[in-house]
Amino acid sequence: MFQATYPHWISECIDNNAPHNLTILGLPSLPASEVPSKAKVVWETFSKQTKLERDIYFYGTFPEDFLWGVSSSAYQIEGGWDADGKGPSIWDNFTHTPGNIKNDETGDIACDSYNKADEDLYLLRALRVNSYRFSLSWPRIFPDGRNRSINTYGVNYYNRLIDGLLAQNITPMVTLFHWDLPQALQDIGGWLNPEMVELFDSYADFCFHTFGDRVKFWITFNEPIAISSLGYDLAVFPPNYKDDPGYALYKVTHIILKAHARAYHTYDQKYRATQKGVVSLSLNMDWVEPEPLNDPRNVEAADRYLQFMGGWFAHPIFKNGDYPDAMKWKVGNRSELQKLPSSRLPVFTEEEKEYIRGTADVFCLNYYTAKLIKHKTTKLLNWIKEEYGNPPIYITENGVGLKSKSEVDDTSKIFFYKTHIDEVLKAYNLDGVNLKGYVAWSFLDSFEWLNGYEARFGLHQVDFEKPSRPRTPRTSAIYYSEIIRQNGIPLPKDEEFLYGEFPKNFYWSVASAAYQVSKLMLPRFKLLLNHSGHLVPSDLSYALIHRLIIRTDVAMLKAIKVTHYRFSISWPRVLPDGTTELINEAGLNYYEKLVDVLLAANIQPQVKAVVSFIPNQLGGWENSTIVQRFKSYAELLFQRLGEKVKFWITLNEPYAIANIAPYIVGHNLIKAHAEVWHLYNETYRPKQKGLISLSMSSEWAEPKNPSKQEDIDAARRHVQFYVGWFAHPIFKNGDYSDLPEFTESEKQRIKGTYDFFGLNHYTTVLASNLNYPAFLTSYDADRGVATIADRSWLGSGSLWLKVTPFGFRKLLKWIKEEYNNPPIYVTENGISERVDESLNDPWRTHYLKNYINEALKAIVHDGVDLRGYTVWSLMDNFEWAVGYSERFGLYYTNYTDPKLSRIPKESSKYYSSIIRCNGFPDPATGPHLCLEPQPEGKKLLIVLNRFILRIG
């Protein structure tokens, strides 16, 4: 494997009208390709897919005979460069010249696999691979490149390796030439010498004869484009040929294609009948994306790029024995402009075309990307399918390198394989690509050509600083082994969809917050600025807000058919200076009216006393006097609303409030909550008979490496710092799990101050231990956790929010076990998007379906006492620091409309169907009335829009 740019020959295929931001990312008897080829249908097909269709993870398996393997090459791992009579290769001599390789490193010893075959065989067995792709060293078998000098030591080494593989039921995939040409053959001109066709055939014939009784999969050349372009055009690979620029690379390819065809025919004529193997060559190809997709010139340019890179070798072999027309025309035209007598691209005779055409039994592909980009693998495989008649395809190299010398816990490599193998699964299962095998690059860390040992591609780490070259399996090796064991990525049993109903009287709710919704309303009305710096509508404005917010929002709630509505009360709107000395009756009357209209619509209010902002005059939650102020504020609400409100939330996401000055603020928040709970419990509960608690927000955390105790501890610590900080004192023993203690009287006062566990949950993270310097004193340093997201997880409109339904169930179960199965109400759950003017939001529907289903599993399978679920949010609104860019709403808010009109998204209808069914009816039992279309929803929308127009 080698990643490089190919500027000279690429200049042949790109003109001034072609895209310059091309993104790096193959059977016989087929006619020549059109220009552009019919494979352009791949771009057309994938351009019609939604982002959700492209990004969603696909679970599935491969056929039973699927080939799983790992790759290596002789020069990169064997070492023993002059051992036992081996002749020098061009890479031996090239690396011995200072300055050619990074850090002047060589492959003289490399992984020392020449002397460690038994250890390598043991590691291959542990990986569970059923194939191993390796190359033969031509100069180890023929020291001078010719069969007059057979080195029996080299032959015996490969015999032992092949026999060892077969003894463990591992199929050898053998590459005849992986760039290490005998120096003696380079001395006669190397691949520019037509005699190489005969010399390569002689070498191949010997290998077929000697090893072919056991080897059934042969690859003649690995990535021949690297030989042509890097060795004879860019001149960065040996032989550093710098003469004849623009000619030499085409001449070399011409000879390589003839040499490949000659070896293929030798196998076909002399060995196939008895040995019954397959012969091909491995081509490396990158995917390119036309930008924009609808520009025919860009589609043609992208197709031309693939024809120059892959078609250069694949077209003669897999199509019609000749180079692609796009390539012939382009090189020919440029040659004419250069006033040359003929094209720099050589011409095959008709006899040569017929001889070359069809000289491959399968298509072998090496594929890499410079960075993790989803979908490219699927597209490239589909392009090969369309262009070359859906040949059997083996991915013979695919992998990613690390820069760290000692990184065994290589999560980034796991993400790479997890994502790319899934794209391969999609190509096979969804697109019908004839995929037969997948071979990871690489088996071991190895000599990576010009980069020396800096790039670590191995599933096994090799310590090159120790003479014994010890190998250590990386975490990615364990992961890949598990994929092989499962023959793909089957859907985990826990993630199978569950049909069923939620308990009767389950709370179905949506949420909003005072400040976030009021930001939508205030621009529409004349506003008065009070002395606290908060915008407060005049009495006239409140009357309009009653009509607009209350009636329109309740109409939306009725359309969704929720049983509850969770909203917050703005402390400064009710008490402008934060104290009961000054009560804003207009503001309080608004909430009284809202509660009345909700109850009239048979929707129960769920009231948050405070979200995250408080009146400026109170000095913040750091001020201990705020405990009593909050209690007085809450008592006013109990007095004025408590007869009608039966579900109270004292604090929403106290973690977010406390994050600025965590421990002091957290201390006061907990005490304030406890005081309000006792106030309600002792004074108001006997008559009002409501429930009161607080809502905590938490991600679920999975260990970054599930086999590493340090990461397991970090994941637990992450959840404890989010949830346990506030839940431990209230739901357990009155004290923190790992913080300064409350007094004994405070513990008793705090413990048990809940009627339910309110939970806001959105996503999951991967956690690992992070050691901060000892002198740092901060909340993050105390927690000592680093978090990342799995790159295969679906994203959202928020960078932090990944679609991870499994974590929802795990968190619910954790709360059950940690806090003795309290009644749980999910008080927020939802997903953001950043698409304007889109009412079709399948991403949100997918999220709701899977998260709510995980909630059902928590009840049915885990015995969690879950009693309600709330979607965030009713409508698109002001999302704090990100403003209006992230849209969480079930209803679309048109911010460009002065009337701020709301329109139901498709997800609102889906959520409504879940509510009507109280869960997920099994389609196998027949049609269900709860899933019938609801005409009244459309009528409500018409009434709603007429109302908005009338008051506008």
From TrEMBL:
InterPro entries recorded: GH, GH_1_N_CS, Glyco_hydro_1, Glyco_hydro_1_AS
GO molecular function ontology, one term from the record: phlorizin hydrolase activity
GO biological process, one term: cellobiose catabolic process
GO cellular component, one term: external side of apical plasma membrane
Transmembrane stretches, start-end: none
Subunit text: Homodimer.
PANTHER family: GLYCOSYL HYDROLASE, LACTASE_PHLORIZIN HYDROLASE
Protein name: Lactase
Provenance organism: Anolis carolinensis
Annotated gene: LCT
